[in-house]
Amino acid sequence: MSSKFVIYQLLPRLFGNTTHVNLPNGSIDINGCGKFNAITAKALKGIRELGATHVWYTGVIEHAAQTNYSEFGIRKDHSAIVKGKAGSPYAIKDYYDVDPDLATDVPNRMQEFEALVERTHKAGMKVLIDFVPNHVARQYASDAKPAGVADLGENDNTNHAFNPQNNFYYIPNQFFAGQFNLLKDEKAPYHEYPAKASGNDVFSAHPTVNDWYETVKLNYGVDYQGGNTKHFVPVPDTWTKMLDILLFWAGKQIDGFRCDMAEMVPVEFWSWVIPKVKEQFPNIIFIAEAYNPAVYRSYLDFGHFDYLYDKVGMYDTLRNITCGNESARRISVMWQRVNDILPKMLFFLENHDEQRIASRFFAGDARKAVPAMIVTATLSTSVVMVYAGQELGEPAADAEGFSGDDGRTTIFDYWSVDSLRSWYNKGKCDGAYLTTDQQELRSFYKQLLNISLQEKAIREGEMFDLMYVNCNNPRFNPDQQFAYLRKAGDELLLICVNFADTAAEVAVNIPKHAFDYLGLQENLQVGAVDLLTDLAEPEQKFSSELPYVVKMEKYSGKILKIK
Fold first, then answer.
1. Comparing C-alpha atoms, which of 225, 220, 217 is closest to residue 236?
2. Which end of the chain has a smaller Cβ tally under 10 Å, C or N?
3. d(CA 562, CA 351)
4. Per-residue pLDDT of the chain in tens (563 residues, 90 and over written 9)
5. Dihedral, CA atoms, 25, 29, 31, 35, nearest 10 degrees?
6. Euclidean distance between CA atoms 539 and 547, whole angstroms
């Protein structure tokens, strides 16, 4: 059975925000904010039609922000330790609540989220949310925790730099003295005593502006300053607290967790907690954000994760090829490195951490990544992810405030994304204000993503890489073209892409081994249809003795279904 699915990542804060002001560093009153309720049944229908099977709602859990909700019983955050007016979705302030910014009616914010989960399910998609296990906001305090639940740090012995039953790491006898303005626009400077270690493993009272200074590191029983010794018996208090939090959100009928910086948390915790969650919610999935290939198999096999990001392998490679900095041959190297776990890898070209394809920092033109996206969606049975606005060629050309002009769509500021706003069109979700280029790009994504799910050869078939027999082919440029076969049952696809800025006619060699391995009949006169355009190709002989000729436009590709 296939495990392939398509994730559509969106920030509710941005999605559906139709405010046009976009003042850098603007407040929520000026720049507006997307709401749970703005993600309507109609919007979800459009996302489903694009090919998404899952929606990853980023920034759901309450995090530190500069907007004051104290009238609703929510503690105000000190602005000196909040990045941006809206704050980072990864500086969690209350694990048991949702972000009040996202509510139309703040007192009913949880009910509005639960209604969104229900709408998403009715639209035929599953729900993913972030679980942020490594760090929390520096002023973490839960006002929504269930009765009898102790807050993180509530029972810590703050005289100890490390104690396996503490929730935080401390710098005893020192005040927090971050190397930045601790007053900001408040009446008094931020005060913390004793200081706590910062989320990016800075065990000092003096984090810099380049550190994760707005967060504090959670203690899972590893003494990092004591030789990385592990103290897992008895079970650390943080483990049990996090299990309760995961069960709380699983009880909201969500379908999975994208686990932020999972490799910064000991794999032993995941090995302990994931089976316990799955005992009660057997169909829930766990996706790890991990960047160290040396730990991939440990987090899958021992840690029980279902899927892992493939950022430092496939993403980095496809980005470099798209930008003309690497040969297309490298794709073969990358998939072979994770061949044994390939179905467990999650492929993407954009997410909230990465620069937009159409930004000047990446390709400068979304169309240049069409071949890379074809490979992303069809190379394997791996999970595929797109980031809201990617299908519209969002260039992220704004300097929104804290995030600056960096080619990314801000996760720190209140903002409205032009391409999404044009598609959303005040809730009509009809793309009425999209340009012709945006419409064509979205149509491509829609066709490609649906093909990747509907075609059995992609969804659950085998892949045969054709590069090794074409590297010295004078009618094939292995630096700019890539080709492979996919087969399931009697369905056969030949997939070719062209990363070059000029059209190409390539003659693809198909070795005898491919025919034997895939059980193909040789020397047949075959026709083909390009599934991306539904256009028929001229008949050719399908043989190991003659190359198969494919014509491609610049920055393009074909998914040829052999008849």
1. 220
2. N
3. 34
4. 458 999 999 999 999 999 999 999 999 999 999 999 999 999 999 999 999 999 999 999 999 999 999 999 999 999 999 999 999 999 999 999 999 999 999 999 999 999 999 999 999 999 999 999 999 999 999 999 999 999 999 999 999 999 999 999 999 999 999 999 999 989 999 999 999 999 999 999 999 999 999 999 999 999 999 999 999 999 999 999 999 999 999 999 999 999 999 999 999 999 999 999 999 999 999 999 999 999 999 999 999 999 999 999 999 999 999 999 999 999 999 999 999 999 999 999 999 999 999 999 999 999 999 999 999 999 999 999 999 999 999 999 999 999 999 999 999 999 999 999 999 999 999 999 999 999 999 999 999 999 999 999 999 999 999 999 999 999 999 999 999 999 999 999 999 999 999 999 999 999 999 999 999 999 999 999 999 999 999 999 999 999 999 999 999 999 999 99
5. 120
6. 13
Task: Please tell me whether the overall predicted TM-score, pTM, comes out greater than 0.85 for this model.
Answer: yes
61 forms bridges with which residues in the sheet? 98
Contacts of 233 (CB under 8 A, 6+ apart): none
In three-state secondary structure terms, 68 is coil
Rounded alpha-carbon distances, angstroms, from residue 477 to 218, 503, 508? 50, 12, 10
SS3 365: coil
Q: Which two tokens stand for residue 315?
A: 């993403």
Question: Minimal CA–CA distance to 28: which of 39, 38, 17?
Answer: 17
* C-alpha to C-alpha distance for 43 and 357, rounded to whole angstroms: 23
Contact 372, 324 (CB under 8 A): no
Place of tokens 């044994």: 340
Distance from C-alpha of 206 to C-alpha of 449, rounded to nearest angstrom: 47
- Exposed/middle/buried for residue 535 (C-beta within 10 Å: 0-12, 13-18, 19+): exposed
Rounded Cα distance between 349 and 139, Å, is: 34
The token pair at 382 is 């791996």
Long-range residue pairs from 196-201, CB within 8 A, at least 24 positions apart, any chain: 196/138, 196/168, 196/169, 196/170, 196/171, 197/168, 197/169, 197/170, 197/171, 198/135, 199/134, 199/135, 199/136, 200/135, 201/264
- Which parts of 222-372 are beta strand (E)? 222-223, 229-230, 256-259, 285-288, 307-309, 345-348
Angle, CA of 16, 22 and 25, to the nearest 5°? 115
C-alpha 367/C-alpha 141 separation (Å) is: 45
Q: In the numeric block, which tokens belong to residue 447? A: 């066709």
Structure tokens at 354: 């990465």
**Distances 118 to 127, 251, 283 between C-alpha atoms, Å:** 9, 13, 17
Query: CB under 8 Å to 490, separation ≥6 — which residues?
Result: none
- Tokens at residue 182, please? 């601790």
Structure-derived torsion over alpha carbons of residues 231, 232, 237, 243, reported in degrees to the nearest 10? 150
Measured CA to CA, the distance from residue 246 to residue 256 in angstroms comes to 10
Spatial contact of 79 and 183, defined as CB atoms under 8 Å apart? no
Q: Residues in the chain, how many? A: 563
Shortest CA distance to 88 belongs to which of 416, 403, 408? 403
Angle at 549 between CA 543 and CA 550, to 5 degrees: 130
